[in-house]
Structures are given as structure tokens and as C-alpha cells.
Design goal:
Elements (H helix, E strand, L loop, with lengths): L6 E6 L5 E7 L4 E8 L3 E8 L5 E9 L5 E2 L7 E8 L2 E10 L3 E5 L11 E8 L3 E12 L3 E4 L7 E6 L1 E7 L4 E8 L2 E9 L5 E9 L9 E3 L9 H4 L4 E6 L5 E6 L7 E8 L4 E8 L12 E5 L2 E6 L3 E6 L10 E4 L3 H4 L6 E3 L4 E4 L4 E4 L4 H10 L3 H15 L7 H4 L4 H19 L9 H15 L24 E7 L4 E2 L7 H14 L9 H16 L5 H21 L14 H21 L5 H29 L15 H20 L7 H12 L2 H9 L7 H10 L4 H11 L4 H8 L5 H16 L21 H16 L21 H19 L1
Parallel strand pairs: 14-18
Antiparallel strand pairs: 1-2, 2-3, 4-5, 5-6, 5-7, 7-8, 9-10, 10-11, 11-12, 11-13, 14-15, 15-16, 16-17, 17-31, 19-20, 20-21, 21-22, 22-30, 23-24, 24-25, 25-26, 27-28, 28-29
Length: about 850
């Protein structure tokens, strides 16, 4: 299979002639390239991008299948054929060993070039590059211009293993230096130049493994019985700058399978050992490694399927290990598979070529059916990484008619629905936390490089639980020695990963510790009335306004839940602080990225956090068919409301431990549901323990909606007594009740006496008008009257509260109650 996706194949016609055909992946048509009128076997072939030159290595065979020499002393003949139109044939090699051929493709698109470059890979352990100049004659006739002498370069020699990466035009090979296996890579460029990119030693033994090539065409001459006994070795990369070497040694016994993955971009190696059950006496199936972008799949047909996380291999729980008893493995082919370039795989028995990809619907099915926490963790991360490119929660994507995007969106909403129904399904980690952190991470991952080093992708820091049937050993690996100092594209990202491993051992992942401390400071300042400059607070609140605006712009559909419809200054402060701190974090570590791009990335990330919380709540809201009528306090809680209250409590627990902001209105709705569903003593316990946070909006509705029955009076009084002083003063004036007047009077007396100092004074009270025999109380009344008369112009006047303290018999009980807290001070001053 060539770089442009075209497939070259050979077959024999009814006369025994060898025919070369090409399947065009764009037009889905077959094209005849060339035919040899001889009984030959094609060992290797390749065609240039213009389809004007065909390179082929041939061996001649008899009807009994024995090979005869084409020329004395040679068993393999390598030819270069002009096929546009059919013209000359040039012999490149006639040797007594096998030769593989491969044209270089400078670009995916076909375009005429004055010179073609052809790789020849010899069984004698060397690789040469031929430069073939072509000329166009008589219209479309293309001929080899320098057929007499083709210039050639020696690319590599004395190697024992090589792999060709067709899509990226890279050649990986291993040579032995002092019994050490050294992996090297040569990058071929569009201008036909090439460079040796790196060298890295591998802790593997290849001295007795023989000569092996990967991705230089399908070698159907190899004995499949022996193939399963041989080592497997391949190199995988992806666009994020990862470099993985997958290695499975020769297998002497099939009771246990061991393989290693060298995470070169992370600087360590992981060796996995898995036990096999019900192994037959003759195992003819070998391990297949598959490149699935962010993952590497390790597959032994009929026995196991392992999905290894390439981006985040640190914790074993981020890898998925399925055994032969799993239904998912039964869906995969049980015949031997051969991994090709990219994510292609060849079923060796049926001869069918497949492109392998992860199915979100199958992952969702596994997520719903598995019982192990480690599998739930791995499956959740895998499903989120598969759908990250579709931006599934963005409003603009909802309007698109793209079927694939709609399918991804549907699968993602099913994940949210499953989470809302199974918040307590995992014991080793918090499912809501993991979903919020991982989804938010993937929402901005593709916007710029190195984000994976700055943002947490998981809420789990350690994992000590064993994975059933898997043994893991982790070892450090030497980092590659880069041979080139000017990097572009993939190589720039790989070098950035290596630099991070070298110099950034302490993790740079963002956390909310600074935000937590600053938020508590601001709340304390608000309570004491000593808040710092208004410009600072205004800037923080402006950040929160930008987040809310960004969130509303990305969601065009109306929300089911009454969120984002009130101020909730505390949550807005938390949002604004997180914007400031995360932006500073990015500016410190993302060098060369525009400030505007960083600001937008921060807004997107925090908006996604809030949006995910809204979607989890809406999934539960939709399932239980709740309506806005529950926002009033004059109804009793139902089972559906209690279920939603439980979900909101779990969301609150998840966000509190990570110190993440909540959508404004969340605490109000949570409190309303709590009043509906909980008995009074449970409700007050939740308030006192911080599970329910009283907001001014919720308490105002409670005062207006509930009448003054004995039960409601008890509820209202209990709530008012737990309010912060600033909010409590506003709420008391809304409750037309003697208890409210009592509270207002007590608060008024407290304010008068807070800064009281004893001063000589003459009694100003006509004692004959009072029939109170308790002299300290008389003295107390005298003090209050004196304070009010002295500070008449300084006392705050409010139409909803008493402008001054008027001494009447109706307020004496309130005064007497107030004495409870000030009695020691009064007695001391009276004495």
C-alpha cells in the first residue's frame, strides 16, 4: 500500500502470466499496470506516484514450486520498468538474496517530478537509494533519462531490523554496536533530502533473531507456523510527538505472554506479563501491535486485547486489559493478523485488508457492562479521547448535519446519561470528578502543544489496586540522542516532550490551591467589610462575566435547569479567580503562544467545566421529567426530586474537593430541593455541615412562598438564625412576624453595644415610669437611651427597620433577651 492509499497487487492469469494491478482508493477502480509473460513469483513491488515507473523483485519457480536461477549465481532479479507507456525494462539487481523495493512519495498528492527516488533493501543488510531521472517525450510518453547509470546513495548498512513508515516517509532500523541494539531513524523530505534524526539504545536482544523487515509489503512466503514463534517489533508515532517501540520476544511457552512498550517520549519502559488459559498444544497465532493514535492495541487472537494509553501511561488504570472471556474479544477476528502502516491490518486467512478504529458505541457498551473500576476508568478515558475532535458539546456542532458528528454527540450524551445514573458505581475514584477533569482536558487539548503538561487529565494521582491477570514492571529508558538541531512538525513536538522529561521532573499540572486561598481571603474580607480595592474585585467579576458569556455563546439551545440565571457572587468570584490564575499559569509555561489565544483557551476550559456540570444535572432532570414548578416551596418533595437532590449533592462533593466553580444558581436549586425533600433536622444538619449553602435568592423565595404556620415559622426562624449577618438583615425585613421584629431589635442592640465604653453620665430616665425592679436592666436601658440620643444623627435610617430604639413595654422582652449575651458586661459596668 503506497502513501496515497493506492494498493498494488499481483495475480496470475489463466496462462500463468504475472499481472500487476493497482486499486485506486479515490476512484475505487482497478487499473492494469504491467504483465510479465513468464511463470514468475513477485517478491516485492512498488510504483511511483505518477504511475510511470514500476519496480519489482522477481524469482522464477517451477510447477513443483522450486525456485530456478534467472541468471547464473542469482535467485532474485530486481527490475525497473517504464509503464507509461510500456517501454524499456532495466535490471537493477541480479543477486543471490532477496531485494525489497519502495518508491519515495514526497507528497500525498501525485504530481510530476523530474526525479524519482527508489529504496532498495537487501537481505545482505544494506539499504540504497536510487535517483531515477525521467523525461517526457512525444506527448505523454515518460522514459528514464539516465538509464545507463542511476546515481545511488548508501542509506544504511549492517542492520538486522528495519521498518518503513509510509505515511510519514520515515525509515527506522536497528544495528548492533557492541551487542547493544541501537534504534535509528531517517526522515525523507519533500525535496528528496534526508537526515538521520536520532539514536536510542534499546534493552532488547536481537543478535540471534535473524533479519526482519516491517511494512515493506506483505511477505506471504513466511511460514505462519514459525511466525508466531518469532519476535515482534514495531515503532509507532502520532501527531502529538509520541514515539513508542513495541516488542514481544520469542515465545518458548504459551502459558505466559510477555511484551514491552518503550515509551521513548516519556523516558520509561513498561513490561507487561499476562497469563493465558485454555492454551492449545499448537499455538499458531502471534501477537499483533496496532497503532490507534492515542493508544496502542496489543492483540492475541482469541486470548486477550490490551489497549495501552500512549499519552498518559503513568497509571496502569489508564490502560484497558480485556481477557478471552470478554464479549468484546469475541467480536474480533480469531485468525492471524498482520499490522501494516498506520492503523491498517491484514487478515492473513481471508486476505482482507481492514482499517482499525475504536468504536465509541462498543466502548459505551463496555462502560455499562463492566464491573471493575479499572476497566471503567480506562474505558471512560478512551471514549472521551475518541470523541474529542468532534467538539461534541458545542452549540455550533449541534446545528451541523454531519452524520458522524451527530453519532459522536449521541454517544457522548449517552455517557453523560450513564454517569448521572451511576454516580456511586465506582469505589476507587469519583466518577463525576474523573469525567469533568478528563472531558475539560480533551476540550482544549488540540488547541496548542504542551497543554497535556499543564492541565490535569485525571483526578486520580495514584492507583494501588492490582489489575487481575496482569503483572507490570516499569523501568527508566535512556532518552534519544537527537542528531538534528532544527525541528519542524512531529520532530518539534517529540523534542519538546524529551525536553520536558529532562528538565521538568516536577509536574507543572495546574491545581486550584492558590485560588482556594485567595477565595477564602476575599470571603473573609466581605464578612468583615474590609475588602481590598474595588478595581481588583471588579476585574475578577469581569472575568466571570466573560466565562458566562462564552458558555452561553456555545450553547444555543435553552437549558432545562434554572441555572446561570442569578448573580451568586461567591461562585462568580471563584470563576474569576480561576481565570486569572490559570491564565498566569499558561503565560508562564506556554512560550510563544499569543496572549489572546491563551485567554480564549482559559475561557473555553472553564466554560467546559461549567457546561459539563449543567449537562450531568440536565440528564437527571430530563430522566425524572422535572419542571420549573419545584422552584416554589409550597410543594412536597417527590422521589424524582430526591434523586436529583442526590445527584446535586454528589456534584457538590466532587467540585468541593477539587475546588471547582459551580454554575450560578446551583446552590439555590440545591437548597430548594433540600427543603422539599429533607426533614427539618436533616436539613439543618446539611446546612451546618456545609452540604447546603444558603443563598439570598433561595431564602428570599422561602420567606415569600411559605405562610406563617407553626411548622413554617420554625423552619424560617432556623434558616434566619444560620444566615450571614449581611444577608440576615435583608431577609428579616421581608418576614412580617413578631419573631422577625425580635431579631431586628436584638441585632440593633448588639450593634449599639459592640463598641460601648463606660463614661460618667447622669441618669436621664424617669425611673418612676418603669416598674422594673431589676436594677441592672434599668441601667441597661439607660445606656441604650443615652447612646441613641448621643448618636441620633449617625444611626442608619431605614424605611424597613426601626430608625431609633424606642423604649416601650413591647420591646422590653427583646431587651431582656438581648441581655443574655451582654449581661456580664452590663453587670461589670454597673458594679
Amino acid at each position: 500500500m503506497e502513501r496515497n492509499g493506492n494498493i498494488i497487487y499481483t495475480y496470475k492469469d489463466d496462462k500463468g502470466n504475472v499481472v500487476f494491478g493497482l486499486y485506486d482508493c479515490q476512484t475505487r477502480q482497478n487499473e492494469l499496470l504491467y504483465a510479465f509473460e513468464k511463470d514468475l513469483e513477485v517478491f516485492s513491488c512498488s510504483v511511483n506516484s505518477e504511475r510511470t515507473l514500476l519496480a519489482a523483485s522477481l524469482i522464477q519457480s517451477t510447477k513443483e514450486g522450486k525456485r530456478n536461477e534467472l541468471q547464473p549465481g542469482s535467485k532474485c532479479l530486481t527490475l525497473l520498468v517504464e509503464i507509461h507507456p510500456v517501454n524499456n525494462v532495466k535490471v537493477l539487481k541480479a543477486v543471490d538474496g532477496y531485494i525489497w523495493v519502495q518508491f519515495l512519495y514526497p507528497h500525498v498528492e501525485s504530481h510530476p517530478l523530474p526525479e524519482n527516488h527508489l529504496l532498495l533493501i537487501s537481505e545482505e543488510k544494506y539499504i540504497e537509494k536510487f535517483r531515477v531521472r525521467v523525461a517526457q517525450e512525444d506527448g505523454n510518453r515518460v522514459v528514464i533519462k539516465n538509464s545507463g547509470h542511476l546515481p545511488r546513495d548508501r542509506i544504511a548498512e549492517d542492520f538486522i531490523w528495519a521498518q518503513w513508515d509510509m505515511s510519514e516517509q520515515r525509515l527506522y532500523f536497528i544495528d548492533l554496536k557492541k551487542s547493544k541494539s541501537i534504534l535509528k531513524c531517517i526522515q525523507f523530505y519533500a525535496d528528496e533530502s534526508y537526515n538521520l534524526m536520532f539514536e536510542v539504545p534499546l534493552d532488547i536482544s536481537l543478535s540471534n533473531s535473524g533479519f526482519k523487515l516491517v511494512n515493506f509489503g506483505c511477505d506471504y512466503h513466511q511460514d505462519r507456523e514459525k511466525l508466531s514463534k518469532h519476535l515482534s517489533l514495531c515503532v509507532f508515532t502520532n501527531h502529538t510527538g509520541s514515539l513508542c517501540v513495541c516488542y514481544s520476544p520469542k515465545c518458548a511457552a504459551w502459558e505466559q505472554i510477555t511484551y514491552s512498550v518503550f515509551y521513548i517520549h516519556k523516558g520509561h519502559t513498561k513490561t507487561f506479563t499476562t497469563s493465558l488459559k485454555n492454551v492449545g498444544s499448537h499455538m499458531t497465532k502471534g501477537i499483533t501491535f496496532l497503532n490507534l493514535d492515542y493508544y496502542v492495541a496489543v492483540y492475541l487472537p482469541g486470548h486477550f486485547f490490551h489497549l495501552l494509553n500512549v499519552q498518559h501511561p503513568d497509571l496502569i488504570c489508564h490502560n484497558l486489559f480485556l481477557t478471552g472471556n470478554n464479549e468484546m474479544i469475541d467480536m474480533l477476528p480469531h485468525s492471524p493478523l498482520q499490522s501494516l502502516s498506520g492503523s491498517l491490518v491484514l487478515d492473513c486467512c481471508s486476505g482482507k485488508l481492514y482499517r482499525v478504529m475504536l468504536s465509541q458505541s462498543s466502548l459505551l457498551q463496555l462502560l455499562q457492562n463492566t464491573r471493575l473500576d479499572c476497566e471503567k476508568m480506562a474505558t471512560l478515558h478512551c471514549a472521551l479521547s475518541c470523541g474529542q475532535g468532534a467538539q461534541f458539546l458545542e452549540g455550533q456542532w449541534r446545528q451541523r448535519a454531519d452524520l458522524n458528528t451527530n453519532r459522536v454527540l449521541s454517544d457522548f450524551l449517552k455517557i453523560i446519561q450513564w454517569i448521572s445514573e451511576n454516580v456511586s458505581a465506582c469505589h476507587s475514584f469519583d466518577l463525576i470528578q474523573e469525567f469533568i477533569i478528563a472531558s475539560s482536558y480533551w476540550s482544549v487539548y488540540s488547541e496548542t502543544s504542551n497543554v497535556d503538561k499543564l492541565l490535569p487529565h485525571s483526578s486520580v494521582l495514584t492507583w494501588n489496586t492490582e489489575i487481575p491477570g496482569i503483572t507490570l514492571i516499569t523501568e527508566d529508558t535512556p532518552l534519544p540522542l537527537m542528531k538534528v538541531h532544527s525541528f519542524k512538525g512531529y520532530w518539534e513536538k517529540l523534542n519538546s516532550n524529551l525536553e520536558y522529561v529532562k528538565y521538568a521532573k516536577p509536574h507543572f499540572h495546574y491545581n486550584n490551591s492558590v485560588v482556594r486561598r485567595e477565595w477564602h481571603n476575599l470571603i473573609s474580607e466581605e464578612k468583615t467589610g474590609k475588602r481590598r480595592s474595588t478595581a481588583y474585585v471588579r476585574n475578577i467579576l469581569d472575568n466571570a462575566i466573560k466565562v458566562i458569556s462564552n458558555l452561553e455563546a456555545r450553547n444555543l439551545e435553552p437549558r432545562l435547569t434554572p441555572l446561570l440565571q442569578e448573580e451568586d457572587s461567591h461562585q462568580r468570584l471563584l470563576m474569576g479567580l480561576m481565570v486569572s490564575e490559570l491564565k498566569d499559569h499558561f503565560l508562564r509555561h506556554l512560550q510563544g503562544v499569543e496572549k489572546k489565544k491563551i485567554e480564549q483557551m482559559v475561557l473555553d476550559y472553564i466554560s467546559k467545566l461549567l457546561d459539563l456540570i449543567c449537562h450531568i444535572l440536565e440528564a437527571s432532570w430530563r430522566k425524572h421529567n422535572l419542571h420549573s414548578s419545584l422552584l416554589h416551596f409550597n410543594s412536597r418533595g417527590s422521589a424524582a426530586e430526591f434523586a436529583v437532590f442526590h445527584i446535586m449533592t454528589r456534584i457538590l462533593e466532587a467540585t468541593n474537593s477539587l475546588f471547582l466553580p459551580l454554575p450560578p444558581g446551583f446552590n439555590t436549586l440545591h437548597t430548594i430541593l433540600g427543603v422539599h425533600c429533607l426533614p427539618l433536622h436533616n436539613l439543618l444538619h446539611c446546612i451546618d455541615s456545609g452540604v447546603l449553602l444558603l443563598t439570598e435568592t433561595a431564602v428570599t423565595r422561602l420567606m415569600k412562598d411559605l405562610d406563617n404556620t407553626e411548622k413554617n415559622e420554625k423552619l424560617k426562624f432556623s434558616i434566619i438564625m444560620r444566615l450571614p449577618p449581611l444577608i440576615g438583615q435583608k431577609i428579616c425585613r421581608l418576614w412580617d412576624h413578631p419573631m422577625s421584629s425580635n431579631i431586628i431589635s436584638r441585632n440593633h442592640v448588639m450593634r449599639l453595644l459592640q463598641n460601648y465604653k463606660k463614661q460618667p453620665r447622669n441618669s436621664m430616665i424617669d425611673k418612676s415610669s418603669f416598674s422594673i425592679e431589676f436594677l441592672p436592666l434599668n441601667y441597661f436601658i439607660e445606656i441604650l437611651t443615652d447612646i441613641e440620643s448621643t448618636n441620633q444623627g449617625n444611626l442608619p435610617h431605614c424605611s424597613q427597620g426601626p430608625p431609633t430604639f424606642v423604649l416601650t413595654s413591647s420591646v422590653l422582652p427583646s431587651l431582656f433577651t438581648s441581655v443574655n449575651c451582654f449581661l456580664p458586661k452590663i453587670l461589670l459596668t454597673y458594679k
